[in-house]
Predict the 3D structure of the following.
Amino acid sequence: MAGMDLSLAVAKQVEEMRKVGGYPSDEALLTLAVQIGSAFSCKKDEVAILRVSPDGRMLRFLCPVKLHKIGEIPLTSAHSLAAKDIRDKRGEIINNFAAYKHPTVFEAVDLSAEEKATPIQKIMSAPMVAEGKVLGVIEVSRKGVPGEPIGPDFTPRDLTELTAVAGILAAYITTLPYDPPTAGKKPGLPAGAGQPPKA
C-alpha cells in the first residue's frame, strides 16, 4: 500500500471513530491496527499505539488493547524506545532490535490465542505530535524467533509513511479521555445514570 493510500485509510477510520464519539471500541482499534500493519506486511499485534499520561510522566498502550491493562512505561525509562522517541521528538528504525537493550515485559504477553508471545526483531516508531506537543508514539514491529525469516528491514520511506499516520492519530488522540469508560458505565453519563432506581 502506498503512503497516500495508508494515510487516507487511517484518516477514514479515524473519522469513523470520531463520528461514533467517546473512547474508541476494541473493534475500532483492531481495525486501525490491521490497516496500519498490513501496509508494512505486519500483523495486527505488531502495531502498538501508546499515549502520554495527562501528567506527562507515563506511557500507556492504547493498542494492543490487552497491553492497556498490563501496565505503563515511565517516560524516564532509559531503555524504552517509545520513551526515547518521545523525549527526542523523532522517529527511529532499529532492524536488529534483539541486540538493543530494552524492557521485554510487554513482549512476554500472549496477545491472543493465535498470537503467542514472540520477541521483537525489527521495529520502527514515530512520535505522535499535535500543535508541537508529543502525545504518544506509534510502533510497528516484526516479531519472530531468532534464526527464522522475519521479513524485510524497515526503510526510511516506511518511517516517513508511519510519521504521516502518527500526525493523523495525534489530532484524534487530543479529543479522547485518557481512561476508557469503566464496564457498566455509559460514556458521558454520571455514575449511576442509566441504572434502575433503588427501592
Observations:
- The chain has one domain: 3-173.
- Strands lie at 47-52, 58-63, 72-74, 92-94, 120-130, 133-143.
- Residues 102-112, 184-199 have pLDDT under 50 and may be disordered.
- The domain at 3-173 is CATH 3.30.450.40 (Beta-Lactamase).
